[in-house]
Write a structure and sequence with these properties.
Elements (H helix, E strand, L loop, with lengths): L20 E7 L5 E20 L6 E5 L3 E9 L6 E10 L2 E4 L3 E4 L20 E12 L4 E11 L1
Antiparallel strand pairs: 1-2, 2-3, 2-4, 2-5, 5-6, 5-7, 8-9
């Protein structure tokens, strides 16, 4: 009868690594689009932003590339609306989901058209006009600049 041999050695076992989501941010807010960025501790695939007008979300965008820095653009949004969103990242069949967050898309600044009747135009000379330049909602800057035009 032949005996069973015993083999001794070290068994190397590494538990699965779960993705950890951090630095979730909404950047590049515009009237109808929004870019969401986040990082993960390990390279993840199937990275998703779920978004909607409430916490049932209802819409999503996904990227499949393996990375630790993520950026997804959401387009086709309604101006001046508040959206809920969360991000999801998957690595080694383990998915991690962020908490719910919100952003509000920018709204168009109201523009008023002024019509000057022919009889209201002053005699030839100078009219002072103030032009307001909106630099963009992401910068939050506005700049007033006075320009002078000659009326002839």
């Amino acid at each position: 009868m032949r005996g069973l041999g015993t083999k001794r050695g070290v068994l190397n076992f590494s538990p699965p690594t779960y993705p950890f989501i951090s630095n979730v941010a909404n950047v590049s807010i515009s009237i109808t689009s929004q870019t969401i960025t986040w990082t993960t501790n390990i390279a993840t695939t199937n990275n998703t932003v779920e978004y909607g007008l409430d916490t049932s979300y209802g819409s999503s965008v996904t990227s499949a590339g393996a990375a630790t820095s993520h950026s997804l653009n959401i387009a086709g949004l309604t101006e001046g609306a508040t959206y809920h969103y969360r991000v999801k990242s998957t690595a080694h069949a383990h998915q991690t989901v962020s908490s719910d967050q919100t952003f509000t898309t920018a709204a168009h600044e109201k523009t008023q058209v002024v019509t000057i009747a022919a009889g209201d135009i002053p005699a030839p000379g100078t009219i002072y006009c103030e032009v307001r330049l909106i630099c963009g909602p992401a910068s939050g800057m506005t700049h007033a600049h006075g320009d002078t035009y000659d009326v002839t």
